[in-house]
Design goal:
This protein has 331 residues and is mainly alpha-helical. 72% of the residues lie in helices and 2% in strands.
Amino acid sequence: AMSLSVLLCILGMPKLRGSFAFKLIGFLAMNNFLWFLFVATGQSMNDNHAACQLQGASLTYFPVASFLWSSATAFTIRRVLKKSVQMKQNFQEDKYLRLLVLLCQAVPIIPTVIPFGFNAYGDLGTWCWISNGNKVQTKILQLTCGYAINWISIVYCAYVYYTVNRMLQKLIAQNRRRTSGTFNTLKYYPFALILTSTFPSIERVWEIFGEPPYWLRLMHVLTRMLSGFIDSFFFYSNPVARAELFATWTEFSLSMGWNSMAAGGDGGRVHANRRVGEDISLSGLDLKRRQQLQQKSRASDHRAATRVLSSASSAIGSPPSKIAPPMRLSM
């Protein structure tokens, strides 16, 4: 559900939908959501052979795609920061995104199809996955098709964090602390892969030599289920995403005439409208939109002040004075 909320926010907000960095986050959220959607179906698909095969294939395809998108964000972070160090222009984002989509959504087809050749998809108990065949064959297919790319992605993300830290030190030495918006948006997402894949990977290796302890299985389930929550936490902690959400809510509330967004009527209004220009500037919204929001905010404040003055004048029996409309300031 958390991954779905991130995906809907990106799709529903043009400024986020048009951002290269948020497109990467959107693809990651989409694959995470579909992954856990098939996990949530649980044993309901075990009795039907075709449904069981579909669930098993999906639980191979979408996790691998998610691992690859995490690696893609790490690769993008390193590439963007490297160009900042070298003071070069940014790469062609549209062409680069098409290449990433091709790699991250097409490559997972290979490990998904391989188990079909061994008729390996079957009832694993909790859900359908690679389980048919002898024990050695099952473990080999699980490790190669389900975890090999995961481990490669973890190692690569760790390598990226090491090299990125060195690049940041170089930028600081050059007194150029400012980094690009793409880097700031994506910098935490590879860490989510490392955090959520460590215990599942340890458990799979442990199973080769013996039965894993209960606490390790528990940590496997908990960290895997936290994947969508961690990604959404990074998304909603991003100042660009928060400012865009705030701007969208402000536009909606003003269009609906909801001038009092908190208890207390006109006197208890939230100071959100007054901070529109300040917060939205973080998201890089265009100047025209900021002007429109600020004009709506000033008009709303004028109407509220007029109503307050009218109520006060009626109480003392004198006609209300007119308040001059807000001046339109050029920016």
